[in-house]
Amino acid sequence: MLTKDEYVAEMKKQLDAWSLEIDALQERAHEIKEEAKVKYEEQLVALRAKREEGEKKLEEMQAVAENNWEQFKAESDHVWEALKDSFNTFKSHFK
After folding, report:
1. Whether pTM exceeds 0.70
2. Where are the alpha helices (DSSP H) in 29-66?
3. Each residue of 69-84: b (16+ CB within 10 Å) or e?
4. Mean pLDDT along residues 3-20
5. Nearest residue to 76 via CA among 48, 49, 52, 56
6. CA-CA distances (angstroms) from residue 39 to 16, 51, 86?
7. What is the pLDDT of residue 70?
8. Helix or strand or coil: residue 3?
9. Are 91 and 25 in contact (CB under 8 A)?
10. pLDDT tens digits, residue range 27-86?
11. Cα angle, residue 77 at apex, residues 19 and 58 outer, rounded to 5°
12. Is 65 left (phi over 0), alpha (psi -120 to 50) or beta?
């Protein structure tokens, strides 16, 4: 099982990777037909909002006391899974 610091480092690493993916997806927006572009842009906005939610959760993780860590981690895992699912859905939809 990961320690709090290891878990936070892993989540930070994943957020950084997702940020790079969002930037790459934004670049692809220029190649998309106009009618699909609106939907693509809407999805990017939603994806950025989820990433921001993940960043806030990361900040909360860093501040949580060790004695509350396990409970907080379990709750955070749900947020991370939702964020991961959003990325995967978006990428598969616009391949």
Report:
1. no
2. 34-63
3. eeebbeebeebbeebe
4. 87
5. 56
6. 24, 18, 15
7. 78
8. coil
9. yes
10. 777 777 776 777 878 888 888 888 888 888 888 878 877 777 777 777 778 877 887 888
11. 50
12. beta
- DSSP element (H, E) containing 88: helix 69-93
- Classify burial at 45, counting beta carbons within 10 Å of its beta carbon; exposed 0-12, middle 13-18, buried 19 or more: exposed
Let me know: does 62 contact 23? Beta carbons within 8 Å: no
Residue 1: DSSP 8-state? -
Q: Which residues contact 63 (CB under 8 A, 6 or more apart)?
A: none
Per-residue tokens: 37: 């572009």
Largest Cα separation within the chain, whole Å, is 52
Domain that holds residue 73: 4-93
- Position 51 scores a pLDDT of 84
Is the pLDDT at 23 greater than 70? The verdict is yes
* Count of the separate structural domains present in the chain: 1
